[in-house]
Fold:
Amino acid sequence: MGRAFAYVILGGGVAAGYAALEFVRRRSDGAAGELCIISDETVAPYERPALSKGYLSPEGGARLPAFHTCAGANDQLLTNNWYREHGIELILGTKVISVDVRRKTLFTSAGETISYATLIVATGARALKLEEIGGNGSDAENVCYLRNLEDADKLIRVMRSCPGGDAVVIGGGYIGMECAAALVANNIKVTIVFPGKHCMENLFTPKIAEFYENYYASKGVTFIKGTVVSSLAISSGKVTTAILRDGRRLPADMVVVGIGARANTALFEGQLVMEKGGIKVSGQMRTSDASVYAVGDVAAFPVKLLGAEVRRLEHVDCARRTARHAVAAALDSSGATGDIDYLPFFYSRVFALSWKFYGDNTGKAVHFGDLDFSASSSSKPKFGALWVSAGRIAGAFLEGGSPEEYEAIAHAVRRGTAVPDVAVLARQGLAFIVQEGQSGAARSRSGGLCGCGNTPSYAWHATVGVAAAVSIAAFAYWYGWKAPYLAKRDF
Ligand SMILES: Cc1cc2nc3c(=O)[nH]c(=O)nc-3n(C[C@H](O)[C@H](O)[C@H](O)COP(=O)(O)OP(=O)(O)OC[C@H]3O[C@@H](n4cnc5c(N)ncnc54)[C@H](O)[C@@H]3O)c2cc1C
Structure:
């Protein structure tokens, strides 16, 4: 049995949904029957970040269909009907088990052969298992991962089975920290264990991490740092105790594992060029095979802003933008689509806190705002860090900013705002960035160009502003309104 499509998207996550919408927009002349999406998940593409936020709220906040893509960008909600109405073949609950890039064919778990003229690989990443780092227990009834809806449903079931119980969270990164906040909201006592010196080690400075760790501690969370869970003691299919390398034993009614992710590249090993643990692509998201594009978590692409250094960014904004860019390039027969010009952007929302980060955390970190947490400190803290590299702003982190302030830091990173004197920046902090942004915009209005290409700075400013406002509005909608205890509306 076989079918053929002009375009096939392999994977049905965030990138697939945004790619589908872009495809329909660019083929307004009608493209029914040309595009097929194949996903091993049983539901249409959805906004994955909701799983660790609104979805886990005790009152059952975000539920499908409300967070199908592209709700996160305040755009159309792509339900199954939407795909049907636009003539897009959505093949769900079907795993692609092998791919022959030379013959342009995919083979599915249903025994079907699907051929394509153009393939967009959007297979994302998978959660790293304990067994892959020498541990055990992944199959236990009360051990949870969080990558997809099925995982989230298991996590909710397990949380509800042990109200007031003890959870051991393994890992102090994004998933560990966001799940810990959700567990607390669900009245579970949390101990987070990780080998590093502080949480979110890849992004946070020690000072920033200290604030969040103190904040979590004020919510009853215990941190055990500098060691690992060496094994899980299991009885009748359930973990009872987490045993640490240093011999300590932590009672556990449940375990949540957030030890990192691996890009789903296996289908293409030996067929496409790989880099940084993902599929290497050009600035147009094209792989080493001209008929194959890769987007989202699985793609390693050159980031212009970082001197075209190849990066693989496991963040939702990146999935959306790379997906749109790949579709633009794939549908552009003139070949005029340029290279993606991406400003790295990540965010997180936990408890009443909310932060955003733009750019690269390299160089000297200059902190600003009130980083000293105490139980009596403001319920709406505002602080951050600006990374200065070669005399320019390379990265910016801001907790509790206003839309205008987030826009200003994004702009500063994009422009690479000059910092002639770090001491002045340290004294003025965020005010330095806001002032620089305003004077940069004023210079642009009088005819000057910003330092980021040929686009007048105010035009870029406006674009970022609209994008930021849209994304803030969207996330406030289904994280803020629907789960006020996990994420606070900030505008
Ligand atoms: C719980 C959670 C919370 C997150 N929160 C944030 C956040 O707050 N901020 C942020 O910036 N980022 C966040 N992220 C990251 C963000 O969700 C990802 O970067 C984004 O989902 C990547 O999109 P993608 O389409 O590349 O991959 P995915 O969304 O993972 O989609 C990949 C799809 O491909 C399917 N697939 C894979 N292999 C096959 C196969 N062989 N056959 C068929 N189908 C296949 C998968 O099942 C899945 O449907 C979060 C991620 C998770 C898991």
